[in-house]
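Can't paste images in this forum, so I'm doing it all in text. The chain is below; anyone willing to post the predicted structure tokens underneath?
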Amino acid sequence: MYYLLIRATVAMLQWCRRALFALVPLLLMPTAMLRLQLALARNHARFWAQSDGSADEYLDMEEERMLRKHLGDVQSNRNERRVLDLFCGGGREARLLAGQGWQVHAVDAMESIINSNLRTRAPDGALKEIEYSQGKLPFALEKMQTMYAAIVICHGMYSTIPGRELRGNLLEELVRLTSDGGRILVSALLRPPGNPQSYFRRRRWARLLWGNRKLEQGDVFVGEFLHFFPDQEALLNELQHKRLRCVASGTQRLGGADQRCYVMLEKCAADESSDTRT
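Text version of the structure:
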């Protein structure tokens, strides 16, 4: 008798757990993940505000190499050398690109860091070529109509976009806003799935809270959101698009087994076929 009661109780608990997993995502997704993305943006803004003007020290060696090598040969006249710097943070990439002769439009989600960049911008010289604006990314791109010869998402910030669907929408917007022959630099975080890192434990807690409908292997969201790709091939697969081809890629080692991966893409003309992995 007690055995049957225990079996019935366990079955009821399992049913309740499945019901919870089915119901809670409908209540919290995708707004919960977007709130965590915003929490990450606020943390970044506080970090840059406290960097005391030393933001340029955080430029990755691989990032700088890619920007100098592959965004120095874009074929466009001086009046068309416009570059869109997304998730600009402390403006380190914007300053480097302005120094290379680009007209930079730098966008960040947090008004506080934009105001800080405007206060510290030099009144003359190359930094006059930087226009800063605030916008919630990636949604702010939907209202943009200006075409750019290049777009950059540096320092792993592609990994802050929650969910493959939203990242796919972002990629479509990047293609739309880039002129033919233009370049797109995408940077994301890598973490080998076999590495015993804390995101596995965090993911189990997240599954308990949010269910498993939209969770991906590599998602980390306890207080803020990040997505780690297992390797460079997984990132390249996600970046495949009929109008894009891969020009170059490279990685920057971080702590432990983590890396930042940089992928330079080129937009092909409509009548050209492409493979992101070439």
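The first helix runs from residue 2 to 28. The helical segments are 2-28, 31-49, 61-70, 92-99, 111-120, 164-177, 199-210, 232-238.
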